[in-house]
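Model: Ready when you are.
Researcher: Fold this.
Model:
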Amino acid sequence: MTYGEWILEATEAIEKIGSKTPRLDALLLLSWATGYDKAILLTKTRDKLSVMRQGKLKNLLNRRLSGEPMAYIAGQKEFYGRDFIVNKYVLIPRPESEDFLELLKVLRKTERVHNLLDMGTGSGNLAITVKLEFPDMYVFASDTSEDALKIAAQNSLRHKAAVTFKNQNVLQGDKEGYDVVLANLPYVPTGPEPDPSIAHEPVEALFSGFDGLDHYRLFFQQLAPKHIRFVMTESLMSQHKAVTALAKKAGYSLTKTEGLIQLFTKSNVS
């Protein structure tokens, strides 16, 4: 089998599982198996694939055809211009979450923000990016999953970012005070048929009750007595009104919205 024949067959197979980028997926799999850049591969379409490489490609293609995301197959995903280690224990970083950084930049123009907690850190991509973009900040990150925290610690070392990680369920037992909490909690409503695109990701990091807000209810209940000035949340736009109501009950008012991200300010903060 030649490189070109494999690309053609793999593209057709991947297209059948509903990938929006079947040819790109095929080229990436071939690149990972051979070590060649995608551009180089397109000059080798008539070259023969060795038996060893065909075996490696079969394994990679089978993983993709099972619906496994490309990021898990690659073992990494880009976020805010940096690559982060990912596996089945953490959510794949989404570009929508980059708006946390944009809102934080806006906030720091008018407020003294010295420390921050990234809650539900997963791979640590958000907390680590905050530390790298704002080196003067003290950054903490929490998660309920020990497996996720191990990945986050690996990413912290990889990027040489000084982040303090802790195993914690929302704010339970947390005696720290923070200027900002980034609440990237599960917000997908439970249902009989989850979206196939997230079938391989950890369910505990995705789903949160019939309306997707169970974690946020717990968070805002715990938040009321805490010394936390600003809160940012990520949720579906259809959930924003309900999240705003939960925040108001806890003593926080909506300040700004950016995409899926909402910024709330404690009522007694000027």
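Researcher: Now this one.
Model:
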Amino acid sequence: MPKHSIKKWQIFLRALNDTLRNKAQLTSFKWKERRILLPTTINGEKTSLYFDTGTSAFELLTSKSIFERLIRHGAPIENYRVNSWGNTLQAFSALTDHRAEFVNVSIPLKKVTYIEGTSLVQNLLMRISGMGGMTGNKL
């Protein structure tokens, strides 16, 4: 088979050892304008999470309405300031009992966060794109 016709995922699978290869379940993700959108299920709802290493201080950054659905009942809400590109924004975090599910892997979430003070354009882009939030290396 000519090398140019081998797909990148096939090269990746060939590099895995047999044990891991038999357990691996791959799925597609969206690559949109140099951004990775991961298909995820949270609280029974399918969504996409934008993967951004700049959000690695947070497990899950999301909208206020999703935050309110995911926080643990009665959990205290932390309120603190964060710096985003020279702008001071307000972050709100609380404990959650929900999980993020990626294909056949379910990862418990500890905290969920939303941020106030983002621009109208940022808010609209998140809504229009169908993104359920952002995640980074922490999750």
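Researcher: Key takeaway?
Model: The two ends are 38 Å apart (CA to CA).
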